[in-house]
Hints:
Blueprint: E1 4-15, E2 18-29, E3 33-37, H1 44-52, E4 59-64, E5 67-68, E6 79-82, H2 94-104, H3 109-122, H4 138-150, E7 156-160, H5 168-185, E8 188-193, H6 196-202, E9 205-210, E10 213-218, H7 220-225, H8 230-235, E11 240-248, E12 251-254, E13 257-260, E14 270-276, E15 282-284, E16 291-300, E17 305-311, E18 314-320, E19 329-333, E20 339-343
Helix pairs in contact: 2-3, 2-4
Amino acid sequence: MNNIIIDVKNVAKSFGEEKVVREISFYVKEREFITILGPSGCGKTTTLRMIAGFEYADSGEIVFEGKNINNLPANEREINTVFQKYALFPHMNIYDNVAFGLRIKKLNEKVIKEKVTRILKLVNLAGFEKRSVNALSGGQQQRVAIARALVNEPKVLLLDEPLGALDLKLRKEMQFELKKMQQESGITFIYVTHDQEEALTMSDTIIVMNEGEIQQIGTPIDIYNEPKNSFVADFIGESNIFDGRMMGDYKLTLYDKEIECVDKGFKENQKVDVVIRPEDITIVDKEEGLFQGLVKSIVFKGVHYEILVESMGALWMIHSTDMPELESRVAMTWDPEDIHIMEKKDV
Length: 347
C-alpha cells in the first residue's frame, strides 16, 4: 500500500442544498490509469475538481503522498488537468503552447527546448512545432493539450472527458494513444468519462459512481463480469436484468422455473436481481432451450445481430451472429456460470 499517491477519505461536497458527492473513499496508486465512470450529474467531475484544487471538499480528506491537501491551492499541487475544451492559445504555435508553462517557471530556453522536443515526440507531434494550433485537427489539438500538461512533469494528470468533442473513429484511436502515453510517461492518470467503452478500454481500475456515491471499484473485467448491483450491470454494457428468487445454493427460480446457477450464500426464497449478458444467451433448438419466445426485433450491429425476443412477458436481448426470422418462435439457453445473481436493494 506504500505506492498510494492519492487517498480520498470520506469526501463530501454540496452546492447549496444539493449534495453532489456523498462521503466517498478510494485510493489511487502510482503509475495507475484509473477512471471515474458514471452518468451526467453523478459527481465524477466534482470529485476530479476537488482533487485538482478547483473545488474544496466540505468534509473528509484528500491526501497526496501522505499529506493533506484539502486547502492547498490548485497551482501548488503537483497535479495538472486536461479539460474537454482544450483552451489552447490560438495566437501561439504548437511549440509555444507546450512551452508556456515552462516559461512561466522561468526555465532556461535550452532546457525548455529539450523538454518540449521530448514530449512532442511522445504525443506523435515531432516536426509540427511551428504549426498553428488553428490548423490542427481535433485529435491533434488534444495531443497538444496533453503535451502542455505532461511537459510540466506532474505526478498526476487529471483528464475530464477529453475525448468528448471528437468523432467516433478518432475517439477510438485516441483511447489507445492515451493509454500508450500513460504507460510511456509513467504518470498517474485519473480519467473522468460517462463512456463505458472508454473506461473498459483504457483503465487499470474503474470507479463507478451514481448520485454522488461509489457503486463499485474494480478492474474492467471485474466490473463487467461481476457487477455489484443492477445499476452497474445496466450501466456497463448491455444487460438483461430480471426478478428472481434464490431457493437455496445454486438454485434459482426465474419466472416460476428452477434454473441452475453457480451462486450461493443467499437466504432461502430471497428476492434477487438476475443478470444475463446478451452475448451469453444462445438461440437453440426448441427441445434444448430453457425459455421460448417470439422474435420482435432484429438490428444489424456490424459484428452481430441485436435480437429482441418476447418471452414470459419480458423482452430478452440477444447478441448473435446468426439471424432468426422476424416473428418466428425461438428457444434460448445459457450456461449456469453466465448468470450473475445480486441482492435486490430495498426500495
